[in-house]
């Protein structure tokens, strides 16, 4: 359906009004995964999420527009950042660079990288600190690139919310275990 100039003007003014929200969400993600993405890329994805929110907002559902816009923008950035599903980003090192853990990297025999083998052993050590369900959630979400919903469907008795909670607790355990044992991640 072609848009009238009034609709386009309204969208443009709402995008401009919520641009600070797009920047805030992008900065939060950039602080966590800045090594992989430019801030401008993340801002653009957040803006696209807000545009989606503008086009899909339904006031009769009872949510405020800002809530819908925030969730849509976060979802857009999160979905975009799944381009690197094998990366698990931890807190930043003291020098400001992000610590990144690669979960279960596949190492081909012809491309033996002894540094990668050593990192693989460290990752196995890291994963030992997790409960079985936390380990399974981490592998499915970060290595296989599955969403919380997809992961929940594959794990009996799980809901997407419980998967997200397990993922959060697993990441916290991994970070603290790595720090306590001097594992460079």
Outline the fold blueprint.
Elements: H1 5-17, H2 19-33, H3 39-56, H4 65-81, E1 87-92, E2 98-102, H5 114-127, H6 132-143, H7 148-154, H8 160-180
Antiparallel strand pairs: 1-2
Helix pairs in contact: 2-3, 2-4, 3-4, 6-8, 7-8
Beta-strand content bin:
5-15%
CATH superfamily of the largest domain: Winged helix-like DNA-binding domain superfamily/Winged helix DNA-binding domain
Fraction of residues in helix: 55-70%
CATH architecture of the largest domain: Orthogonal Bundle
Task: List the domain count as a whole number.
Answer: 2
Q: How many runs of DSSP E, i.e. beta strands?
A: 2
Q: Give the integer mean of the pLDDT values.
A: 76
Q: Which fold name corresponds to the CATH topology of the largest domain?
A: Arc Repressor Mutant, subunit A
Q: How is the biggest beta sheet arranged?
A: 2 strands, antiparallel
Overall morphology: globular
Low-confidence stretches: 1-5, 85-91, 100-114
SSE topology string: HHHHEEHHHH
Number of helices: 8
* Oligomer designation: single chain
Give the N-terminus to C-terminus distance in angstroms. 50 Å
Q: In CATH, what is the class of the largest domain?
A: Mainly Alpha
Rg result: 20 Å
Q: Biggest sheet, strands in spatial order? A: 1-2
Helical/strand content category: mainly alpha
Descriptive account of the structure:
- With 185 residues, the protein is mainly alpha-helical.
- The protein folds into 2 domains: 5-81, Rna Polymerase Sigma Factor, Chain: A (Orthogonal Bundle); 87-180, Winged helix-like DNA-binding domain superfamily/Winged helix DNA-binding domain (Arc Repressor Mutant, subunit A), CATH 1.10.10.10.
- The protein has 8 helices and 2 strands, in the order ααααββαααα.
- The chain has helices spanning 5-17, 19-33, 39-56, 65-81, 114-127, 132-143, 148-154, 160-180, and strands spanning 87-92, 98-102.
- A two-stranded antiparallel ribbon has the order 1-2.
- It starts with a helix and ends in a 5-residue tail after the last helix.
